[in-house]
Specification:
This protein is of the alpha+beta class. Helices cover about 50% and strands about 5% of the residues. The chain has three domains: about 130 residues, no CATH class; about 150 residues, no CATH class; about 90 residues. A hairpin with a 3-residue loop joins strand 5 and strand 6. Helix 1 packs antiparallel against helix 12 and helix 6 runs antiparallel to helix 10.
């Protein structure tokens, strides 16, 4: 057994961060841009049957999510409030992918993990009558392993020429050179190359260094600087702070108790609640559930190796694989519809259907194109053209401002193609030579 202070403190911090994400989405206008403004929302395929609430209904959804997050923080009716938070956040994640971020997926995984773990038995409203100060030691280790997986895959994904030669960072940092104070530094080539190579080394080493007691404080300082830099420069929501909150699992529980002494009900655990003796693992169904969970976490990011083609070009296997901030992708496409019975053609006015960000996604991500084509097919069928043909003409995609070429085969009728998230789509054009 182990002192459960890290798990309890993480519950408090995680709940606060999820509440900040929920209410912040409303306050910053993100929610309006993602759910109210668009005529269409592009769901995570194949979960297209759950639909977001119409009109301003998603404001109620996110408000309920924020309140559930506060209940998780307080440890009030914890199992129920954690399950509500997990359900609502998963729905918000599946409803739309135009604004996809890796930390949204990480939050989905953690939300469901938090439903299952006993994080409410200390410093919680639910623990007012019965306070427990211990939890299984393997549970603390499992949280560490999860973060190790995230950072390890992030490091591996960076080992490609566009990152190592600074092409991506020249675009990503150069476009932010107007930022006060740090802006001029971001445009310096030497700084961009420093970030490129230190980023790979940092992602690969920071979690092992956190795990080792002799380098833990140094690794935490590095993680603090790294995440504050990402938050300041890239504006990626609560993800940097979620990673910092996660570090409670790497520190001695007594240290966590001293740092968070101000949490009501945390107190000091008896001396017997300490990491000692051999590790014991869960048994029965819980063991198989843990194995299944980590099998998904380890194997899902590898799926793009089984799909022909370059994942940077095709995006096949890109999501849910910890491929974070790797490339800048831009593009354009003209969509033409044709009635085969009359030969009449129409150029689709994409502004009638899509927001600016959605148009960029349709031009550069084939799953967006596939889903948009299904909408167009249904619309033409209602207008009396059930066998409409749809073509992607003048397609052009650039990666990091250099690699450039058509993404879609202009001669393929996209109204007749299939899409499978775990296999290659042969209707994509080959990438240009590098």
């Amino acid at each position: 057994m182990s002192n459960n202070a890290p798990l309890v403190v993480f519950r408090v911090l995680f709940g606060l961060l999820m509440a900040a994400e929920s209410f912040g989405a409303m306050a910053t206008g993100w929610l309006h841009r993602a759910f109210v403004e668009p005529r269409l929302t592009f769901a995570i395929f194949p979960f297209e049957w759950p639909k977001p609430l119409p009109g301003y209904g998603m404001y109620g959804w996110f408000a309920a999510m924020g309140l559930a997050a506060f209940a998780v923080t307080a440890g009030w009716r914890y199992r129920v409030s954690a399950a509500i938070l997990a359900f609502l956040w998963t729905g918000a994640y599946l409803f739309q992918k135009t604004h996809y971020n890796n930390h949204y997926y990480l939050a989905v995984a953690v939300c469901w993990v938090m439903v299952a773990v006993p994080a409410h038995r200390r410093a919680a409203v639910d623990a007012a009558r019965q306070r427990e100060t211990a939890c299984p030691r393997w549970l603390i280790v499992a949280f560490k392993v999860q973060l190790l997986i995230v950072f390890t895959y992030a490091a591996i994904a960076k080992l490609y020429p566009g990152w190592l030669n600074g092409d991506y960072l020249a675009v990503a940092l150069g476009s932010r050179s107007h930022r006060p104070v740090i802006g001029p530094l971001l445009s310096e080539p030497w700084f961009q190359m420093f970030i490129a190579y230190s980023g790979v080394a940092f992602d690969a080493l920071v979690i092992p260094l956190l795990w080792w007691s002799r380098t833990r404080v140094l690794a935490f300082v590095g993680l603090l600087i790294f995440n504050l830099f990402n938050s300041l420069v890239f504006k990626i929501g609560v993800f940097p702070y979620l990673v910092l909150a996660w570090t409670v699992f790497f520190f001695d529980p007594r240290t966590i108790e001293r740092l968070f002494w101000w949490l009501p009900g945390l107190g000091r655990a008896p001396e017997r609640e300490a990491d000692s003796g051999p590790m014991t693992w869960p048994t029965g169904g819980l063991r198989y559930a843990l194995i299944a969970y980590f099998a998904v976490q380890v194997l899902l990011p590898l799926r793009h190796y089984l799909i022909p083609g370059d994942v940077l070009w095709t995006e096949e296997g890109h999501r849910m694989a910890w491929r974070m901030m790797l490339r800048h992708k831009a593009g354009r496409v003209t969509i033409v519809a044709r009635d085969p019975s009359t030969g009449e053609t129409w150029q689709i006015d994409q502004t009638e259907w899509l927001t600016g960000k959605q148009r960029r996604r349709v031009a550069t991500r084939h799953d967006f194109m596939y889903q948009f084509v299904q909408v167009l097919k249904a619309d033409f069928a209602r207008r009396g053209v059930p066998e409409v043909q749809i073509f992607a003409k003048d397609s052009k995609v650039t990666i990091n401002g250099k690699l450039s070429g058509p993404l879609f085969d202009p001669n393929v009728d996209l109204a007749r193609v299939d899409y499978h998230p775990f296999s290659h789509s042969p209707w994509l054009a080959d990438p240009p030579p590098k």
